[in-house]
Each structure stands twice: as structure tokens, then as C-alpha cells.
Write a structure and sequence with these properties.
single chain; 17 helices; Rossmann fold; about 400 residues; binds pyridoxal-5'-phosphate; 2 domains; alpha/beta; 4-stranded parallel β-sheet
């Protein structure tokens, strides 16, 4: 595991020079979140997740607000990812069976659409959470799911996918190898890939996955309004292949085109494909080499999604990379809150943005704070993208203190 001491950051100078408004309008049209929300609200038991307000922590950190969209409570699945997989399955079934007209959730059931034949099989590669989401949606609707994971995926994550009734295939190599094998097997067998990452010639479904995530962002926006907070000034968002970050940037950029929040994309230092692509600065996505060994399993991706990258390249403000202790710090602070703040259960990939926010309050990150205007007026939105998706590892970090802060690190 990597555990160097410093967080690295790079300002995205490419951003405003090239911005492609057409792509933004195509991927995130004004009504996209309303359509996604309309679909998700039909799911039995669906509820908005809470937006947590960490006022005592904000005061300690020197910002006005820290708001946390708590996805550990999403549909009982402990992560936000189901929003994307379920919406993409909906859009695909709509395309095949309803000529693009809306299908109600009940009409999507395999018993309605495939009464006389073999139902569609849905396939996905995953670091864990996307696979659970696809498997869950497939099972709810009576379809089969086959989920591909890489060899380092923890037993707890594999079991969580299998509990949703999916067949799990373990692939040698990394997440990116699992993506390739899932694609090849699906092509051979006529299965439908529901991928959160895109590649040449395969963009429609990953676009739907990203659009599905906007339900969460629209909820957050509605919840902020109810708290009389007009908008976030800063959004820190985790990056794996970049689909979540692109959805976040796309949603808020459309809403506040001329005065958007500042977007800070946060990755593990051992899997920093978006940061590296920004650094290379030729406008293209670039793979990050190595074994992607990080505790942030959901963010352990070496290949950016090109579709997502195009949005981030044009509109993200800053990319940062974090050693593993930054995520561990975020998990502990969420778990033992300041003052009367609510407790949030947050896993490694969920907590890294809080860890990053706390870390950059140190004097040595003054230039970064200045670059993004992070000061006492800042209203920071974070997304706790997952709860304790690996419960044993969660306790090793939060109770047993694994991945401690380095000796010389300042405390707030
Ligand atoms: C918990 C969690 N957070 C964030 C992400 C990052 O999402 P993306 O791969 O779209 O960048 C993932 C991806 O699986 C995840 O599982």
C-alpha cells in the first residue's frame, strides 16, 4: 500500500480554453435529472438519502458549511452506484422494447417483456459497488446478472454481489482487465454490458449511467434549498474512472453555468488516472500504470472513461491525489464527529474527499486553497459515496487505527 505523506494537486489549465458546451448539453441536458429522479422514485422502497450538515466540523476547519450527501443509505445497498446501473438498464429496455417511450418500473419486468423467450442477461465489471447495483436491479426485475471482478477484490465485496443473486467471475489482473473480459464474453454470448466506463464505440450506456447519478445531485440541491443554502461554492468529488465526477461537474455546471462551484476531483495516489491525464495536458485520457494498490477499492481504476474525461478536462478546476491515510482520516472523522454533528459511516472511497478537505487546511496547502478560493465563506459539498462496504476493513481502520496520520502531520 502507498502511504507517502503529501497530497499532490494540479490546477486544470486546459479547462476554459477548450470547453465543449455541445457535449455538456448532450450528456447533461437541462431535464436529465428530472427524468432520472422520476424513474428512481418508482422503485419500491426508494427514498432520498440524507444531506448531513457538519456545522461543528465546518467551524473547526474554517469554512462556512460542510454538507455531506450520505449515500451509505441508498436503497439499503451501502453505495450510490445503483443509481447509474438501474437507470442504464431502464434506458436500454426502453430502447429495445418501447421505441424510446417511457416504461414504468413494473413494465420493465422480464415476465412482461420476455414472456416467450430467454430474458436479456446483464453483465458488468466492477470494483464492487457498480456490480452490486447492476445485480440488484437485474434481480428486482427478474433478469440474470454476471459480474466480473478482479483478483484482488475482497471476499466481502464478492459475497455482497453474490447475495444479490449474480454469478461472479474473478478475472486475473486489475479492474481494467475485468472490464475487457466482461466485454469480450458479452460479445461472444449476446449479453448486454452495463458498464460505468466507456470505450470507443461504447458510449450510450455509460452516458446513461452518468445521467442516473444526477438523481443524487438533484436531491442534494433540493435539500440545500430546504436548508436555505442557495448552492455549494465547492464540490469535492471522488474519481475512479471519472463517471461520478463527470456527472457531478455536468449537473452543477448546467445549473450554474456562469458561476459554477469549484470542482476538486480527488483520487488515490496509486490510481491517479485523471490527475495524470490533466498533468499530461494534451486533452486526451491517459492510463495510470501499476498495480493500483490502494485501500480505496472503488477508486482503483487505471483507465479513465473517455466520455467522462472529456467533461472533466473541460470543466474540473483541480485534480488531487491522496495517500491512503487521507481516506482513513476521513473515515475516522466521519465516525467520531465534532460537537453535535451527526455520525456518518463512510468507507475508504467515500471518505477520501473529507480527508482531503481536512488535509488542505494545513499551511503548506495555502496555494491550493487560494487557487480554489476555499475560505471562511466556502460552502463545501461532499458525497459520502459508500458506507462500510467492507465491514472488516472498516473496523481495522476506524477502531484499530490502521493507516494513521504521519508523525509530522498537523491536526486540526
Ligand atoms: C464508493 C465509490 N465511490 C466513488 C467511485 C468512483 O466512481 P467512478 O468510477 O465513476 O469515478 C466508485 C466507483 O466504483 C465507488 O465505488
Amino acid at each position: 500500500m502507498n502511504n507517502s505523506t503529501a497530497l499532490q494537486w494540479i490546477a486544470n489549465n486546459y479547462a476554459t480554453a477548450t470547453a465543449n458546451r455541445k457535449l455538456l448539453d448532450t450528456l447533461f441536458p437541462a431535464d436529465v435529472a428530472a427524468e432520472a429522479q422520476k424513474f428512481h422514485r418508482q422503485i419500491p422502497g426508494f427514498e432520498a438519502t440524507p444531506l448531513r450538515r457538519l456545522s461543528a466540523l465546518a467551524a473547526k476547519t474554517g469554512v462556512k458549511e460542510i454538507l455531506v450527501k450520505d449515500e451509505s443509505l441508498r436503497l439499503g445497498l451501502n453505495a450510490f452506484k445503483v443509481l447509474g446501473g438501474s437507470y442504464a438498464i431502464y434506458k436500454r429496455l426502453q430502447q429495445i422494447h418501447a421505441k424510446g417511450q417511457q416504461l414504468a418500473f413494473d413494465e420493465m419486468r422480464s415476465s412482461n417483456l420476455y414472456a416467450d423467450g430467454e430474458p436479456q442477461v446483464f453483465v458488468a465489471a466492477t470494483d464492487g459497488n457498480h456490480g452490486i447495483g447492476v445485480a440488484w436491479a437485474a434481480r428486482e426485475l427478474g433478469y440474470k446478472a454476471i459480474i466480473y471482478v478482479h483478483q484482488l477484490t475482497s471476499g466481502a465485496r464478492i459475497e455482497a454481489i453474490a447475495r444479490q443473486g449474480a454469478r461472479v467471475v474473478v478475472v486475473p489482473g486489475t479492474y481494467d482487465d475485468a472490464v475487457r473480459e466482461a466485454g469480450a464474453d458479452a460479445e461472444k454470448n449476446g449479453w448486454q454490458v452495463i458498464s460505468d466506463t466507456s470505450w470507443e464505440g461504447y458510449e450510450e450506456i455509460p452516458a446513461w449511467v452518468m445521467q442516473g447519478y444526477t438523481t443524487m445531485l438533484a436531491e442534494a440541491q433540493q435539500q440545500m434549498k430546504a436548508m436555505a443554502i442557495s448552492k455549494p461554492t465547492h464540490v469535492f468529488v471522488q474519481g475512479g474512472v471519472g463517471a461520478l465526477a463527470a456527472a457531478t461537474v455536468g449537473y452543477f455546471k448546467q445549473l450554474y453555468y456562469d458561476n459554477p462551484p469549484r470542482f476538486v476531483v480527488t483520487e488515490p495516489e496509486a490510481a491517479a488516472c485523471l490527475y495524470s491525464s490533466c498533468r499530461i495536458a494534451d486533452g486526451k485520457p491517459h492510463s495510470f500504470p501499476g498495480d493500483l494498490d490502494t485501500i480505496m477499492a472503488g477508486l482503483a481504476c487505471g483507465d479513465p472513461s473517455p466520455l467522462a474525461w472529456n467533461i472533466l478536462r473541460d470543466y474540473a478546476d483541480v485534480f488531487i491525489t491522496c495517500p491512503d491515510y487521507v481516506a482513513a482520516r476521513g473515515m475516522r472523522v466521519y465516525g467520531a464527529p465534532a460537537g453535535a454533528d451527526p455520525r456518518v459511516i463512510s468507507g475508504e472511497s467515500g471518505a477520501v474527499t473529507l480527508g482531503a478537505l481536512l488535509t488542505i487546511t494545513e499551511p503548506k496547502y495555502a496555494a491550493l486553497r487560494q487557487k480554489i478560493g476555499l475560505d471562511k465563506n466556502a460552502q463545501v459539498l461532499l458525497i459520502n459515496t459508500e458506507g462500510d462496504t467492507d465491514p472488516q476493513d472498516y473496523l481495522k481502520i476506524v477502531w484499530d487505527g490502521r493507516f494513521p496520520l504521519p508523525e509530522n502531520q498537523e491536526r486540526i
